[in-house]
Design goal:
The complex is a heteropentamer, with one copy of chain A (235 residues), two copies of chain B (225 residues) and two copies of chain C (361 residues).
Chain A lengths: L2 E7 L5 H12 L4 E7 L1 H9 L6 E3 L4 H8 L3 E11 L1 E5 L20 E4 L5 H12 L3 H4 L3 E4 L2 H9 L5 E5 H5 L6 E4 L8 E8 L6 H10 L2 H9 L13
Parallel strand pairs in A: 1-2, 1-3, 6-7, 6-8
Antiparallel strand pairs in A: 3-10, 4-10, 5-8, 5-9
Helix pairs in contact in A: 1-9, 2-3
Chain B lengths: L5 H34 L3 H15 L2 H12 L4 H8 L9 H26 L2 H9 L4 H12 L1 H17 L2 H6 L10 H10 L3 H30 L1
Helix pairs in contact in B: 1-5, 1-8, 2-5, 5-8, 6-7, 10-11
Chain C lengths: L7 E9 L2 E9 L4 E6 L5 H9 L6 E5 L2 E5 L4 E2 L2 H4 L1 E4 L11 H11 L8 H7 L15 H14 L4 E5 L7 H17 L4 E5 L2 H7 L2 E6 L2 E7 H6 L5 H7 L1 E11 L4 E6 L2 E6 L8 E6 L5 E3 L10 E12 L5 E8 L2 E8 H6 L7 E6 L7
Parallel strand pairs in C: 3-9, 3-10, 7-8, 8-9
Antiparallel strand pairs in C: 1-2, 1-4, 4-5, 5-6, 10-11, 12-13, 12-15, 13-14, 16-20, 17-18, 17-20, 18-19
Helix pairs in contact in C: 3-5
Classes of the chains: A alpha/beta (235), B mainly alpha (225), C alpha+beta (361).
């Protein structure tokens, strides 16, 4: 088998492509297709029979839901930890805190949809922790997933918003960002799982092992993720 | 079956408001355009025909992509609006109206054009000899004679706007009461795994729509008989 | 043809496919002008150009208004010309009832009180149809509705394109009588396209003959009919027309006498009154020529005439004899056999016999 | 009316809006049947039901085929009946040229070699129009194309709904002559709707008279015309028809003699040959009644007759006199004035005078 | 401007294949349906009219939602197909064809119905008397006479399929060469911040589409003239 299909959370845009590139250079002749989306969307699709072999979620809840439903095999494994930042393409955010988002100069605040994008859920946690969730409601615009949310900010349509740190630190990213203290939200235990569809795919298992290897972890770090010392089963 | 939440009701009403606004505006501008396209054989009208039809073949995501760039604060329309101290259009109801009008224009113009082309010149000539000027002829001959086409245009325009998802996804921002229309709300429920709520919402839309369509069909046949 | 004309003047160069018609006509401000010509001679094209439905190069003026003058770039659109138009083929609005059709032009004319719509509706037998959908009308019914609709739009000029061709004999007779009445009561000029001789004779005050893409003759009816330079087929179809005054009524027999310069004609009487001017067409084939006055014959009318000329008729067996009855021209179609048997020659005095019934309807 | 009929038999109950027509007709397998009646009398409705375009309850059989029998739930669709239909209003396909229109039915009939399409195209003057778009035809041109199109579809029965009403005099004459020729050469029956008496006289072998929603008379032409129980208006419009054999030709005068039981008629000669059976219609108003044989008159024909009956004509001044010329009925319309002046009474011997030219075209 | 990658080419071709397949199938089934709807006044036809029109007023997400429930491994059609050892339809090209046909059906039927209604009975009667049976009449009279309507139907159907985003998003699964159509590919580029590539792809679609439309418009006018 030379071809597998991977479903990945939208925050992995870039980093996963890079990892597959390096994997490919070591395993010529194999093909790994990636589909990005919000973790919730991908989970629902897998539940409905979408033929993905591996699922990279932005958190650990969605992979666990798949395991519970019998749509995935084995335990979800954490491959990285994700953090959120406040990012703007046009403003200097030095010293800006989440509390200050109520200021009138921020007319539009972009977040991912908390209903099915883990990054959105974390953004909501941070806003609630700051006590401004209700106050900023009229300014909130939601992206379907974190990548679309980043687009709202990148194109200037929203002056500011919450994105994965990886987006704000990517080489092409313009503007400035400030880190949101991890005390204000639960950092994302980004986990992946082998799906029912991929249960017998040797290539999938091999690729999953590769992702946990040191080379891949280096790439994650390079793109702004945090990598746990040991890729141990979550919980 | 899940409950019909206040948020869902809001999405429902917003959708109807959007579709109604867009349909009325489109009928108003679509009729003269369709008439022109139906009866002129000049070069400009042919090119215009193709331009009007363009949104037909553009995926909503393409349209949304360009609209976001064009209407956003860095786009030239966005800059123009900002210089006039107007809000930029993305993430607003007005923005959805503009986008949906662009998107649904051909769906209104095409059926109108089809019926207009089917109306022979004779009826218009007769009306002229009976003293009816151009506008009068339009209202007293063309409109009643092309009634089925107008109904079709309105239904297509309305429906296409209700069903619009891609463009709204790109430039809506999912704002309750402003840009969170039904299609988005259902998608959200679905993605969140809230099948019951998705089902309630979808079913209510199906029932209401079907009732409206059926009524329209029965009325339309009555009018013909 | 004078440029100062108080009726309609049209100088148009009409080109449509094979048709190439150079029209230059001047029509009087009153009465009926009949455009007469064969199928394909351009009658309809002509009406359309006058109504402004087609833009052929040239000029059109009507009374004090200039409707078209290409030199000045002027072209008044149809709806501002206020011409009534009854089309050759049915042209009712399908989406309206008969009543809706009638009201269409009436409303736009401001429903003038000068228009006695109710009377026309009755006269043309349209009342029982008012509530009908157009699709439920017979061919003849449609045409009647179209005529009344045009009248009710209060036009300044009425154009009728063979309005009777879809009608049967009795309906035609009735409508023709109705149109004849219109002719005398309507204060506006009518242009009437026809290829029926009967209609020409009954309605025309003025005649325009189209043939082979040109106007072969035009002018007042009598003068045009008297011309001998016209093609014999045309002369023959046209026959002759006698105009005179009703001089006596014979109520018992339902007959009346029509006095004209050449004598007296006896013809069926309907509602005419003594002193009324009347016109009566005599078909050339209805005229019998005799050397002597006949006795004990049902041919009531015997008019003393002089033979003016004889020309070959269309059929080789026949000839057309022009007779003169004190200034009124009569035309008789007889066989050459008779011509020779009677030994006729121009200048001879003869009796023209015409049955009263031939003059009737 | 026999149930075993080798032509068309239709028993239909047609209801359309105000129209309520109970039809029961049996038509011969050959020749022309004319459906005659006023506007709105249901002629078109009748043809449509026969063609299967409308489904009115009843039965229709044609030759060996049953086309409709509601009792058996049988209704053969139009396209399987192979009826040619020339519609009252123009009905050409706009999306085809004239040639395309003609070929439409021709191709579907398998372009049979038995059909001399080229001849019809020439005879009906359609050749110069072949490449035209339908929109570029005049009213008369359209109708000619429609007739040729129907013929070329090789029908088993041809239905014509007032095919000549859109035509002008000369085109009508030409087409009528053409249809007369068809009548003798076409091996199929024709049903011809008309309200023109001339067309009836020239074409009809069989006559069906419709009036007031019912069939008032039907049968072979002569028999039907001789009936005196018909409404006088009808009798009057129908006139009389003399059928005889050509007995002599006078080539010098282009005349010929037609011998029939009652005598000899002299009439214009075209291409007829001696011995040929010919039919000639005499309009009642063309007949003059005289006590004595006239001399020195252009009325060539004088036939000795007996007065059979007199009835009031439509016009109060006139009466219709039925004459008998050795078995052939003649009809004369004269004024009551003449009737009395001549002191006529049934049984009287008189001379009926008819001009040769009145018998011609 | 970004490069036109192999993946993009694949998406482009896949989209054209999908739209062409769907349009042809829809014209084939849409014509008889439209004719029936245009000429029958029976109750069933009225209800059918409303049913056919239903996808018009359904947001693609609703349609996608129900299709997924119905065709998925737990839906009754899905189970049926599984019992026949057939692949389930969601996330396959066939699935997209089925979904797009449902979704675009009214866009094909409506303009057809409009033109069919405008064709008078007379032309069909004439064709009958000239020996043309029902199918023959359809091909030789209705089709040529309703040519503008058929072109409109084909363009609308084709375009609507090309533009489809919501349904594909729900049941497509974004599989390269199988279900990753243009609208999705452009959206992906957009999300990935690959504006240049999104732009290339969108622009190529615009150019190709506009050329096709323009050609069609010019041809159509020619045919009329
Ligand atoms: N659009 C056209 N293109 C080409 N030729 C045309 C067009 N319209 C009319 N004609 C031709 O012009 C001629 C005159 O047409 P028109 O309709 O004026 O005749 P008409 O005198 O009204 O005849 P009819 O008595 O048959 O109605 C005809 O030979 C016709 O074929
Ligand atoms: N669909 C209909 N609904 C109601 N009445 C109708 C309908 N069709 C025809 N009629 C009526 O039926 C009568 C007969 O119509 P038909 O067309 O058969 O007459 P016709 O004898 O052919 O007349 P014409 O000589 O004027 O063509 C007319 O009075 C007409 O108004
Ligand atoms: O699953 Mo996401 O990356 O929060 O959209
Ligand atoms: Mg004409
Ligand atoms: Mg009729």
């Amino acid at each position: 088998q030379t071809k597998i299909s991977v479903a990945a959370a939208a925050d992995l845009h870039g980093v996963l492509d890079r990892i597959i590139e390096t994997y490919n250079s070591e395993h010529p002749g194999v093909q790994i297709d990636v589909v990005y989306g919000s973790s919730g969307n991908l989970t629902t699709q897998i539940e409905q029979g979408a033929p993905f072999d591996v699922f990279f979620s932005a958190d650990s809840d969605f992979p666990e839901r798949l395991v519970r439903n019998g749509k995935a095999v084995g335990k979800p494994l954490q491959y990285a930890e994700g953090h959120i930042v406040l990012w703007s393409a046009s403003m200097d955010l030095k010293g800006v805190t989440v509390q200050q988002l109520t200021q009138p100069r921020f007319t539009r605040i972009a977040i991912a949809n908390p209903a099915h994008a883990p990054y959105g859920k974390r953004s909501e946690q941070a806003l609630r922790a700051a006590g401004v969730w209700d106050a900023v409601q009229p300014k909130i615009v939601m992206g379907e997933n974190i990548a679309q949310t980043a687009q709202f900010i990148r194109s200037g349509n929203a002056q500011i918003g919450f994105v994965a740190e990886s987006f704000a630190r990517s080489p092409e990213a313009k503007g400035s960002y400030v880190v949101v203290p991890t005390s204000m939200y639960q950092p994302l235990k980004q986990s992946f799982v082998l799906t029912q569809h991929g249960a017998n795919a040797a290539l999938a298992k091999d690729f999953m092992a590769y992702v946990q290897g040191s080379k891949a972890r280096a790439v994650f770090v390079q793109y702004g993720f945090y990598v746990p010392e040991i890729a141990a089963p979550v919980h | 079956m899940g409950a019909f939440s206040a948020a869902d009701t809001q999405a429902f009403l917003l959708t109807l408001r959007l579709a109604a606004t867009v349909t009325l505006l489109l009928l108003a501008i679509g009729m003269p355009i369709a008439w022109w396209l139906a009866h002129s054989r000049s070069w400009p009208s042919r090119v215009a025909g193709a331009v009007v039809a363009l949104p037909l073949v553009l995926p909503p995501t393409v349209l949304g992509f360009y609209l976001l760039l064009l209407l956003g604060p860095n786009g030239w329309i966005g800059k123009m609006m900002a210089s006039m101290h107007l809000d930029t259009l993305p993430f607003t109801f007005k923005g959805l109206v503009v986008a949906s009008m662009l998107y649904s224009l051909p769906f209104v113009v095409q059926p109108l054009q089809g019926t207009f082309e089917a109306i022979g010149r004779r009826s218009l000539e007769v009306a002229s000899t009976l003293g009816a000027g151009p506008l009068d002829r339009f209202l007293s001959v063309i409109v009643p004679m092309s009634w089925p086409g107008i109904v079709a245009a309105a239904v297509l325009g309305f429906a296409h706007t209700i069903g619009e998802f891609g463009v709204v996804m790109m430039i809506g921002g999912n704002r309750p009461g402003e840009t969170r229309v039904m299609s988005i709300a259902i998608y959200d429920h679905f993605e969140a795994g809230e099948f019951a709520q998705a089902n309630t919402l979808a079913l209510s839309l199906v029932v209401v729509s079907f009732a409206a369509l059926l009524a329209m069909y029965l009325l339309r046949r009555k009018a013909k008989a | 043809m004078s440029a100062a004309n108080d009726g309609l003047r049209a100088a148009l160069s009409i080109r449509r496919g094979a048709l190439s018609l150079d029209l230059d006509i001047a029509l009087p401000a009153h009465g009926v002008t009949v455009l007469f010509g064969a199928s394909g001679s351009g009658k309809t094209s002509c009406l359309r150009a006058i109504a402004g439905l087609e833009h052929s190069p040239g000029t059109v003026t009507f009374k004090d208004a200039c409707w078209q003058d290409d030199a000045r770039g002027l072209f008044v659109p149809t709806y501002q010309r206020r011409v009534g138009y009854v089309f050759q083929e049915s042209s009712l609005f399908d989406h309206l009832t008969v009543a809706g059709n009638l009201d269409y032009g009436f409303r736009r004319a401001g429903r003038p009180s000068s228009i006695d719509a109710a009377r026309w509706i009755d006269d043309f037998g349209v009342r029982p149809l008012l509530a009908r959908r157009v699709a439920a009308l017979s061919g003849g019914e449609r045409q009647r509705v179209a005529i009344v609709r045009a009248l009710m739009a209060n036009p300044r000029l009425l154009l009728l394109d063979e309005p009777l061709s879809a009608l049967d004999g009795s309906a035609k007779t009735r409508l023709l009588a109705e149109l004849e009445r219109l002719r005398t009561t309507l204060p506006i000029p009518l242009i009437y396209v026809s290829h029926s001789v009967e209609e020409v004779a009954r309605l025309a005050d003025h005649l325009v003959l189209l043939d082979g893409g040109r106007v072969v003759a035009q002018g007042p009816l009598q003068q045009t009919l008297a011309r001998i330079d016209l093609p014999c087929a045309l002369i023959e179809t046209l026959g002759s027309v006698v105009e005179g005054k009703v001089s006596a009524l014979h109520r018992n027999d339902n007959l009346m006498e029509l006095a004209f310069a050449g004598g007296t004609l006896c013809l069926p009487h309907a509602e005419e009154t003594v002193g009324q001017t009347l016109r009566c067409r005599i078909d050339a084939r209805d005229v019998v020529i005799a050397r002597d006055r006949a006795t004990a014959s049902s041919a009531l009318n015997q008019i003393h005439c002089e033979v003016v000329a004889v020309i070959a008729a269309d059929h080789p067996a026949q000839c057309l004899v022009q007779l003169d009855a004190h200034g009124t021209r009569l035309l008789a179609r007889i066989t050459w056999h008779s011509w020779h048997a009677l030994g006729l020659a121009p200048g001879d005095a003869v009796w023209a016999q015409v049955k009263a019934v031939a003059l009737g309807s």
